[in-house]
Design brief:
- This protein folds into three domains: 204 residues, ATPase, nucleotide binding domain (Nucleotidyltransferase, domain 5, 2-Layer Sandwich), CATH 3.30.420; 72 residues, ATPase, substrate binding domain, subdomain 4 (Actin, Chain A, domain 4); 111 residues, Substrate Binding Domain Of DNAk, Chain A, domain 1, CATH 2.60.34.
- The protein is built from eleven helices and 27 strands.
- Strands 1, 2, 3, 4, 10 and 11 form a six-stranded mixed beta sheet that branches. A six-stranded mixed beta sheet has the order 17-12-13-14-18-21.
- A hairpin with a 5-residue loop joins strand 25 and strand 26.
- The longest helix has 26 residues.
- The protein is globular.
Length: 511
């Protein structure tokens, strides 16, 4: 019997999951050590051990300062870190701890080594967040075969077993911490992304925050102080707010009891009130839907199906909003919590055909061998330049947002300084002409140019974005033929490639 050593992982903001393709070619979820299909993306630093999962999430109530949650929102940040016992843990480090737990559990469940992985990311993740995710996987001991956009993974899980009838599908992906909306052409094994947009700071956590603010407001009105000044109570309230949110997806009202300093408020929240609290965030998702439809030159009526992905799509207000906008009920047949991991596993199996062909059974090869995926850039990619004849800096876009990838574009620039022997180039992702409004993802240097030459010499810059959305840059001095080719060299500490041994040192086991 052939057994794959490549898995798919949905590394989520609030929950993560693992899937693998079995010998029959069917993707299936691999339960964790607690026999659960989902693992909370929470890390608890508990003295002699690092705990990941439900126990870590539960510990936030009693030990809020020792629990890290929602770290996915910080991926790629150069300023965020968590300190425990004098050690600094970056978002990449925390994510690698979660991935280590997932890897260990899956290997124990399946009884074999699992060195290869495809990890999913929000479609709207930029280059530094994607690299941070790759680095986290490598720190966890994986060979990362690909980082795959979550809506793309969901569309694969949705489309691979369907008839060959082509459909234009909008994937509405509202998870615990991020939101993506993606338009995809699905024709059996052909998956073509048309346009994508999103917000990596919008998700179920924001709905929990809205409930928390509302209940604290009532408590303060009744008792005159904010109970969440106590971090333990704040942790308890977050758990209660999430519970209330889930209850209101099934019931018309929910009772939340908030206590602090011997005082108590019993707060009944009706679904209509909850809908009011989260409406600003849902309106933002609707605005992004309109934006992606415009980018794709489509109308709501031209969308054949709206596919729901992410646990937050269980909220009735979400489904009501989409039904009203598209004039049809969204498709909730695919498990919103598992579709992304299942799609990632199918792509991992396809990669395995080229990496470890001896592991791929005939049914698996037949199932995924013909899988064709065409993705797009989620952000425009450009280089800092100057307006001719002035000192005004601009972001000169080479690869526009929603360009099919892989893509490579070249553009010629003119040197502006006499005697210039090196050119420092800054790469940006963003849609604005002003570089200050864009994300500087990295820089590199074209050095060794001849001295004493006048300004006005031509340099050709080429930017390439591969199928994983990772950026590479090259520059050619046309006069001398001097050329430099490099991956973007990040200033971000969080995304630099360093081993786990050098990044953070701990003998604590991860469970």
């Amino acid at each position: 019997m052939t057994e794959l050593s490549a898995i798919g992982i949905d590394l989520g903001t609030t929950y993560s999951s693992v899937a693998i393709v079995n010998e029959k070619g069917t993707a299936e979820i691999v339960p964790n050590a607690e026999s659960e299909r989902l693992t909370p993306s929470a890390v608890f630093f508990d003295e002699d051990v690092i705990i990941v999962g439900q126990d870590a999430k539960d510990a936030q109530v009693k030990y809020p300062d020792q629990v890290v949650m929602f770290v996915k929102r910080q991926m790629g940040s150069s300023t965020w870190y968590y300190t425990y016992e004098g050690q600094k843990f970056t978002p990449t480090d925390i994510s690698s701890i979660i991935l280590t737990k997932l890897k260990k559990d899956a290997e124990n469940q399946l009884g074999r080594s699992l060195p290869y992985v495809v990890i999913t990311v929000p479609a709207y993740f930029d280059d530094d967040r994607r690299r941070a995710t790759i680095n986290a996987g490598e720190q966890a001991g994986f060979k990362v075969l690909d980082v795959l956009n979550e809506p793309t993974a969901a569309a694969i899980a949705f489309g691979i077993d369907r008839s060959s009838k082509p459909e234009t599908v909008m994937v509405y992906d509202l998870g615990g911490g991020t939101f993506d909306v993606t338009i995809i052409k699905v024709n059996g094994k052909e998956i073509k992304i048309i346009a994508t947009d999103g917000d990596h700071q919008l998700g179920g956590k924001d709905f929990d925050d809205a409930v928390m603010r509302y209940t604290v407001q009532i408590f303060k009105a009744e008792h005159g102080f904010d109970p969440t000044d106590d971090p333990n109570i704040a942790g308890e309230l977050r758990a209660l707010a999430e519970k209330t949110k889930r209850e209101l997806s099934k019931r018309s009202k929910s009772l939340l009891i908030l206590r602090g300093q011997g005082k108590e408020s019993k707060i009944e929240i009706e679904r209509t009130k909850f809908d009011e609290l989260i409406k600003p965030k849902l309106d933002t998702t609707l605005s992004l839907i309109r934006s992606v439809l415009k980018d794709a030159s489509l109308t709501p009526a031209q969308i054949d199906r709206v596919l729901l992905i992410g646990g937050s799509t269980r909220i009735p207000a979400v489904r009501d909003m989409l039904t009203a906008f598209f004039g049809k009920e969204p498709d909730a047949a695919t498990n919103p919590d598992e579709a992304v991991a299942l799609g990632a596993a199918l792509v991992a199996a396809q990669k395995a055909i080229h990496i470890v062909p001896e592991e791929v059974s005939a049914p698996v090869a037949e199932k995924v061998g013909g899988l064709q995926i065409t993705d797009v850039t989620s952000h425009s990619i450009g280089i800092e330049a100057y307006v001719p004849g002035s000192s005004q800096r601009i972001n000169s876009i080479l690869i526009p947002r929603n360009s099919p990838i892989p893509a490579e574009i070249s553009k010629e620039f003119i040197t502006t300084i006499n005697g210039q022997t090196a050119i420092k180039m800054t790469i940006y992702q963003g849609e604005f002409p002003d570089p200050a409004l864009c994300n500087p993802v990295g820089e590199f240097l074209l050095a060794g140019l001849p001295p004493n030459r006048p300004a006005g010499r031509k340099v050709r810059v080429s930017i390439a974005c591969n199928a994983s959305g990772v950026v590479n840059v090259s520059a050619l001095d046309i006069e001398t033929g001097k050329q430099t080719t490099t991956e973007v060299s990040y200033k971000n500490e969080a995304t630099q490639k360093r081993s786990a041994k050098n990044r953070w040192k701990t003998e604590k086991p991860i469970v």
